Amino acid sequence: MFDTLLFPVDESDGTTDIFEHILDIATAHGSTVHILNVADTTRDSVTQIRGEVVDTLEREGEQLVRETADRAKQRGVSTVTDVRQGEPYRIIIDYAETHDIDLITMPTHGRQGLERLLLGSTTERVVRRSDTPILTIQPDAADELQYPYEDVLVPTDGSDCANQALALGVDVVNAEEATLHLLSVIALATLGVDVRSDIQQSMLEESATELLDEAAEFATNAGVESVSKTIEHAPSISEAIRSYITDHDVDLVVVGTHGRTGFDRYMLGSVTESLVRTSPIPVLTVREPTENSE
Fold first, then answer.
1. What's the pLDDT tens digit per position in 119-155?
2. pLDDT tens sequence across 19-61
3. What is the second-level CATH architecture of the domain 1-107?
4. Residue 13: which of 172, 122, 140 has the closest Cα?
5. Is 146-294 a CATH 3.40.50.620 domain?
6. What is the DSSP track for 117-142?
7. How far, in Å, are 156, 205, 215, 235 from residue 201 at the CA level?
8. Of the candidates 139, 232, 155, which has an alpha carbon nearest to the alpha carbon of residue 187?
9. Distances (CA, A) of 21 to 15, 43, 84
């Protein structure tokens, strides 16, 4: 299902470590891997000096993609290489669209302090804006990655973007002959301390059960043979998902994300963004299409 993969490569820690996992996927699917390096010409030092500095960045990029392609060749994986100039996230998104890429694969890093709240990384910007599905992987987890995926988790809340994630997750499960785990989380914070909370909880559980039944029916009709359904109560949806991943030895989690504009695009508050940053396993994201997004 993934005939073409895009792997943006740079010299950051962990990029090399996760490439073997990408090659595992490419080998299994007979995929061509596009290896792209972007000479970041938006940095002040480069903008002010240009010329020779940019040439140096390009030469370093050419060497990096060549070395990465050599690793793929050793595994029998076909590659396409390219080095571009510009703002990395924009180049990556444009390249994926222009070359009909089926899956973008990128490393991500957990961060601490105030910078957690700001969308500064290339990966996060690509996740927010790209219409191409994106597989993000924490470099620290590279040594423990499992492939083929045997257990795939799709959390659902019945939203349009969750339904898109379900459709993609079902495709992955069928391609990998994996077990599909469906999860609905009831956030305890929504119940409050009101005496009516018991009634509200009952309504939420009934709604969650209906959502899971509908999702399971969709998956079964699409050919999925093994489906499990779980409702969890937790203070945090992302924490519940991470706990489920650990408790059930899940190999991949598939989630939807919203494309947003304005100031809120710079705030990292969503469940998906939390998972991208902290999940111990690969996260496959698919964005709900928007009419006005960059």
1. 348 888 899 889 999 999 988 887 788 999 999 999 9
2. 999 999 999 999 999 999 998 877 654 555 555 666 788 888 9
3. 3-Layer(aba) Sandwich (3.40)
4. 140
5. yes
6. GB--SHHHHHHHH-SS-EEEE-GGGG
7. 17, 6, 21, 14
8. 232
9. 11, 31, 24
